[in-house]
Recover the amino acids of this structure.
């Protein structure tokens, strides 16, 4: 190292750099909305995790550690990346007490705003599901293309709602305007955890390609025969 | 010895994995760990009094972009690249000339005299002031590479990530920048000598 390089390295300590500020709190605050929700989730997740392990693990077989390591938690949805199937409970539809409603009526029965993607326009049909004692529904489903394309939305502050079973390599993180999302590029089993914590598996069909994301405290799941690019465009167009 | 070398990078990677899965606690730790070098980088690249805003913005952006970090470089170098970028954005949006900050950041020679208490000390302080003046005169890219390689003491590899240049460019730009700096210093010596 020559003299000048040594001098430059030595110069550092003579430069009057102010003490570094503590920005951790402010950074945390900026990421706040998801933070608050996630912290609350932890409690619920523990509950849901038990449900999932019961569902996923064939008794006395697969190692507990492997099953836990294969789980991805995101936006109220638990994605199991182990290959063990969810044992079906025999329920034909995973969503309890699901019924059709008009967009206006549905909005009155939900605790979060319905935001149809502008790329898709007004939905052909609206379904609400899983009602509580006060008449408030937990999940809203917007159907398009004769039901081949669907958007499920639910309050992300609630407990995990959907469980997905997908093989590891098909699951990836993608970037949206609002943050990041999980893309599942192939058919996979989908289960719904109802208010009582029961895992309800839709046995009739496998879910198609799905994009999962959250925006303003609401979790979304877009499912249909879509490419990753199309799904991202739709997700970026929430009303 | 081996274990210690391995532990440090692994630790960041584990935290990144956690943060990517939504664990903000893990991200807090990454923020705490890298605040000092992020801040220093912003200041030395010319963010001045906006350095605090710059790193705050950089940390928020880094979190949102975390899915794009593939671990091909150290997390620190990846983060510092975002800090450098934010610093440049700031200059662009306020159309301010960068590099002025080294002046504000330059040590005050008077305060060193008492400490050194000798003629040698005075000369060394003068030399440092000259060096800072010369640095300020360098073109932006030359100054950036000098700041990375010598003032921030980043490796060549980290500098590649941070500035987003090919390795060959980092090498050639470093030696060219040093040559320019030498020329500037010679001129100063002549003028003062």
């Amino acid at each position: 190292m020559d003299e000048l390089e040594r001098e430059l390295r030595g110069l550092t300590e003579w430069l009057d750099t102010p003490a570094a500020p503590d920005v951790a709190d402010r950074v945390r605050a900026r990421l706040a909305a998801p933070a608050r929700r996630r912290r609350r989730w932890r409690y619920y997740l523990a509950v849901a995790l038990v449900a999932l392990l019961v569902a996923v693990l064939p008794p006395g077989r697969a190692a507990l550690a492997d099953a836990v390591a294969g789980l991805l938690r995101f936006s109220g949805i638990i994605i199991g990346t182990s290959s063990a199937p969810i044992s079906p409970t025999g329920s034909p539809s995973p969503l309890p007490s699901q019924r059709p409603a008009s967009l206006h009526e549905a909005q009155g029965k939900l605790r979060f705003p319905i935001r149809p993607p502008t790329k898709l326009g007004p939905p052909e049909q609206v379904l609400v599901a899983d009602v509580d004692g006060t008449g408030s529904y937990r999940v809203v489903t917007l159907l398009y293309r004769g039901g081949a394309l669907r958007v499920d939305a639910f309050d992300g502050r609630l407990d995990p709602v959907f469980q997905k079973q997908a093989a590891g390599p098909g699951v990836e993180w993608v970037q949206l305007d609002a943050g990041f999302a999980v893309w599942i590029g192939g058919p996979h089993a989908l289960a719904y955890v109802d208010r009582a914590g029961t895992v309800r598996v839709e046995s009739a069909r496998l879910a198609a390609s799905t994009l999962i994301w959250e925006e303003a405290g609401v979790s979304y799941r877009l499912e249909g025969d879509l490419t990753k690019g199309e799904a991202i465009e739709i997700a970026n167009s929430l009303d | 010895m081996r274990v210690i070398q391995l532990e440090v990078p692994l630790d960041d990677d584990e935290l990144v994995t956690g943060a990517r899965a939504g664990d903000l606690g893990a991200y807090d730790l990454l923020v705490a760990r890298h605040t000092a070098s992020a801040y220093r980088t912003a200041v030395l690249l010319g963010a001045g009094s906006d350095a605090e805003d710059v790193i705050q913005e950089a940390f928020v952006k880094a979190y949102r972009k975390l899915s794009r970090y593939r671990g091909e470089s150290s997390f620190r170098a990846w983060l510092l690249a975002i800090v450098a970028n934010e610093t440049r954005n700031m200059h662009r949006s306020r159309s301010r000339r960068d590099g002025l900050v080294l002046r504000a950041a330059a040590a005050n020679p008077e305060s060193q005299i008492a400490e050194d208490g000798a003629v040698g000390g005075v000369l060394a302080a003068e030399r440092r002031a000259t060096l800072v003046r010369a640095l300020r005169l360098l073109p932006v890219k030359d100054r950036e590479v000098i700041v990375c390689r010598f003032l921030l003491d980043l490796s060549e590899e980290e500098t590649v990530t941070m500035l987003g240049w090919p390795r060959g460019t980092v090498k050639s730009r470093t030696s060219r920048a040093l040559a320019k700096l030498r020329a500037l210093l010679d001129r100063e010596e002549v003028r003062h000598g």
Confidence is low (pLDDT under 50) at residues 34-75, 81-92 of chain A. The longest helix of chain A spans residues 32-56. Chain A touches chain B at residues 4-5, 7-9, 11-12, 14-18, 20-24, 26-28, 30-31, 34-35, 38-39, 72-75, 173-175, 179-180 (CB under 8 Å).
